[in-house]
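Morning. Coffee machine broken again, so started the prediction first thing and wrote up yesterday's gels while waiting. Chain of 240 residues, entered below exactly as on the submission form.
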Amino acid sequence: MIGNVDDPTEIKRYRDVVRKAGIHGDYVIIGVEHQSTFDKNMIFRILNYDATTYINQVESKKEVYPIGSFVFYTGDEEWNLPETLKSIPSEMEPNINDWRLPVVDLKTMDARKLMNRRLRDVVEISQSMFAGSYDGLRENRKIETESFMMAGTFTHTNIRREDLPEGNEINMCKAMDQLFQRMRDEEKLNTLKELLKVKLGTLSSSLEKQFTNISLEKLNVLALNIFNINSEEDVLKIIN
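Came back before lunch.
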């Protein structure tokens, strides 16, 4: 509750992830915020979260555990926002109580420190995706399919489950070959659609819809006959 005592405003704040952890027999509370974009007020949000959590512990009249908050950042650009209150210039800086904002950047974190194999796979694959490293992704090793999908989500890479080999575990080399083949097919389809728009002026919504399910074989036939097409009926004769 903040604001005027007679007319307060209720505000609610929810962390992305909160966990209670034991470290050498001592309990700590760990809060994690996932950011894929910049938020210039992030340091103040963390301060708000932590202060509220401390107040709630005090008011519950139970033991007060220390709180550690982190930002897990998965954006394309390097994090360039203040990670401490003292990053804000002020002549009063020596007298300002500081509050740190530790940022864990997916692109630069050390995957070797991760004990869990699945998490290590996700981080390593994500870093290769960010770097555009074909060799790093095409290693001859097996990983869980969900780990590959998770890395695609973190890096905003358009990967569909049907684009990958079947099974709960995939071979990275085979998976990348299959994925790149799909991308080449999509590129070919998009090129053909642009050529058809040039020839016909526009494409109807019904024809656009049929292109979503066109087979690779018919796509190749369409490419061979592109210069003989003068109407949508000509296209339909080939793909149906």
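The chain has a mean pLDDT of 82. Going to sketch it on the whiteboard this afternoon.
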